[in-house]
Every structure is written in C-alpha cells, then in structure tokens.
Design brief:
CATH topology of the largest domain: Rossmann fold
Bound molecules: phenylalanine
CATH architecture of the largest domain: 3-Layer(aba) Sandwich
Number of strands: 15
Distance between the termini: 63 Å
CATH superfamily of the largest domain: Response regulator
CATH class of the largest domain: Alpha Beta
Structural class: alpha/beta
Shape: globular
Number of helices: 12
Number of domains: 2
Strand content: 15-25%
Mean pLDDT: 94
Order of helices and strands: HEHEHEHEEHEHEEHEHEHEHHHEEEE
C-alpha cells in the first residue's frame, strides 16, 4: 500500500471514530437568527414570538439533541430594518438559518437576501402569498392568505348572513392588500357585493380614522372587513363605535394581540377574526402549552406565541434530521417536514414551501378572543 493511501485510511479511521463519538455524546450545534418586531407599532408580535421560542428552547435543551444559539434582531416592524437584520445575521453572525419575520412586508424585504445567500429562512407567521415565492430557501410554517381570506369570506356570507361589505385596507401592508383581494374575490363568488367601488384605505401609524369611517358609514355596509394590524385596528374600532357605526368588523390574524383589547376597550366586542390558534382548544397538548406559557409569562398565549413556539420546534426537528448542517441539507430537511404536530396544528410543508393547516375563527371580546369554529383546508 502506498504511503499516501495508508495515511488517508488512518485519517479516515480517526475521523470516523471521532464522528461516532460526537454523535453519541454531543448534540448538533446551530446558530439561528431570529428577526422580530420587538419594539414599534407591532411589538407584541415580536414579544409573543420570542416568548414562545424561549419556552420551546427549554424543551429542546432538555431533550439534548440540538443546541441552538439564538440571536434575536429587532426589526422595529420596518421593511428596511428587516433587510438590515437579515444581512447582519448572515454576514456577521454566520447563522445556519433564520426564523422570522411576522409582518409580510417585513419578511418580503429580508427574504431575497436570504435567498441570494442561500441561507434557509422560515417564517412562522407571514401569510402573504408572495413570501415563499422569493425562492427555494424561503419557507413558512403557517397557512397563507389564500386560505385565510376564503375562511373569512365564507364566515361573513354563510355564518353571519352578510351580503354587502365595506373594505378598509392598510395600504402600507402587503398582507392587508393581499388578504382583502382574496376576501373580495370569494365574497363576490358567493353572491355578496361591495358597498362601494371606492377603496377605503389608511397607512400604518395613522391615528385619526374618522373621515374615512364617515365615508364608509354613508355606503351602508352590513359588515366591514378590516385586514389590519392591532394598533390601527384598535383605534378604528373605538372611533367607529363612537361614531355610531354598529356593524360588525371582521379581520384576520393581524388583530391577534393582547394589546387589541387594551386599545379598543368595549369596542372590541362582537367582531370576528381568523387566526392560527385558540388557547380555548381542548387538545391536551395545547392545554399543556397554555399552562406552561401562563406560568412563564403571566398571560395567555396568542397566535404569535404559538406560532413562534411551533416554528422553532420545526427547525430543531429539521436540524435533527438533516444529513449535515450545510445550508442545502438543512433546507432539504426543513422542506421535508411532514405531519409535525404542533400547538397550531399539524405542519406539513408542501411543494411551494407553504404549510397547509387549519384556521380558527375567533370572536373578539373584552375578556379575550373566544373560539367560534375551526376550518380545515
Ligand atoms: N399574517 C400576518 C402578516 O403576514 C402577520 C401575523 C401573524 C400577525 C400572526 C399576527 C399573528 O403580515
């Protein structure tokens, strides 16, 4: 045997036994970047997400198969900050993967950077259709607005018996614009109509909605679809009720925040939203999560807490299954997630890297969001 071959054999032998040793003794170590709105007008999304993630990390640590070094970046709810955070996590922190963000416009700003650098990015919460179209390294563990919008259109038409809807859209949000399109298409298909062909819209950080609401009132809708985020939604509901608008408002997951009740006060009552999770769910796994979350944070978990919790567990599971920790192997493991049972439902990533999952319809009340029904895809 030639010396070089011999050396190679010896070296391989050593390497082999070393890797046997590591897999038996140590866990797989990864660095995961988390991009969330920890401050700003949608801060509860980030705070709840990170709470959920940290709760899940306790389980992951206890299991001992995966070690996650989590680096949280605050994107302040802004697209540009999201892009900067993704760049920093990839370039300086050399993360293995990224979890985040929440608002679709934020994720849409960061996703192309992750895609160009081939770093797996998985959002636990961004529902806009376009998000995963950013490329093969971008996936999500939640349903999309193509589903959520249909759920609410049917609920409005079939369950509430409404026929004439007014739309009030957040023009600074891809989520709001996309969701209102899906809703309108389905609502019309069912036989409903819009109360006006004019679009009523606002932008994030607006605070006075009375002129808009006055115009909407004049169109005499029997229901108002408001696919916004909780800060503006809270004010809109309050101002609407003060102006004598009594029709129910309908929304999507963007309303799902512990702050909504605080902002809207009594005006929160009698409205409905679609979301990802209900803390009322009798499922023992959900109730165990709710109990642990309340014990840790003194508050019931909302959708974002549950989505963050499931999102990081899906990632840890993928790390366990991945052939190696290379970006390609990790992404392959992430997108082959099948039937992962989480607190937001069973998660299977489809060929477009989206998750097909059930949605819940919740009634918003001063006592919190109350479970109304569950809708399967
Ligand atoms: N789905 C929303 C979006 O894409 C984000 C969101 C998810 C907000 C869950 C609250 C709860 O913009």
């Amino acid at each position: 045997m030639k010396t070089s071959r011999l050396i190679k054999r010896i070296v391989t032998g050593i390497l082999l036994s070393a890797s046997v040793l590591t897999s038996a003794q140590a866990s797989k170590k990864v660095t995961i970047g988390a991009v969330f709105p920890m401050t700003g007008p949608i801060a509860t999304y980030g705070q709840e997400s990170v709470n959920g993630i940290k709760l899940a990390l306790k389980t992951i640590i206890k299991e001992g198969k995966v070690e996650i070094n989590l680096i949280v970046e605050d994107n302040k709810g802004e697209p540009q900050e999201s892009a900067n955070a993704v760049t920093k996590l990839i370039m300086s922190d050399k993360v293995n993967a990224i979890i985040g963000s929440v608002a679709s416009s934020n994720t849409l700003a960061g996703a192309p950077i992750a895609q160009t650098n081939k770093v797996p990015l998985m959002t636990p919460a961004s529902t806009n259709e376009k998000v995963t179209m950013a490329g093969s390294f971008i996936s999500r563990t939640c349903f999309t607005d193509a589903f959520q919008g249909v759920v609410m259109a049917k609920f409005a038409y079939e369950n509430l018996g409404k026929r004439k809807v007014a739309l009030l859209i957040d023009n600074s949000s891809d989520y709001s614009k996309g969701l209102s399109r899906v809703f309108t298409k389905k609502f019309k298909e069912l036989g409903g109509k819009l109360s006006s062909d004019k679009n009523f819209s606002y932008v994030q950080k607006d605070t006075d909605f009375r002129t808009l609401l006055r115009k909407i009132k004049r169109t005499k809708p029997d229901v108002i679809f408001l696919p916004g985020y909780y800060t503006e939604v809270g004010l809109i509901l309050k101002q609407a009720r003060q102006m004598g608008i009594t029709q129910p408002f309908l929304g999507g997951d963007g309303w799902d925040s512990p702050k909504l009740q605080e902002l809207a006060g009594k005006a929160v009552n009698g409205n409905y939203i679609s979301s990802h999770f209900s803390s009322d769910d009798k499922d023992p796994m959900v109730q165990k999560f709710v109990k642990e979350y309340v014990a840790a944070y003194g508050q019931k978990p909302g959708a974002m807490a549950a989505l963050g919790y499931d999102g990081i567990l899906v990632m840890a599971d993928a790390v366990k299954r991945a052939k190696s920790l290379s970006n390609v192997d990790l992404q392959a493991a992430l997108v082959s997630t099948k039937g992962f049972v989480g607190v937001t439902g069973a998660i299977t990533i489809d060929k477009n890297r989206n998750a097909r999952k059930s949605a819940v319809v919740l009634e918003t009340t001063t006592k919190g969001n109350i479970f109304n029904s569950k809708v399967n895809p």
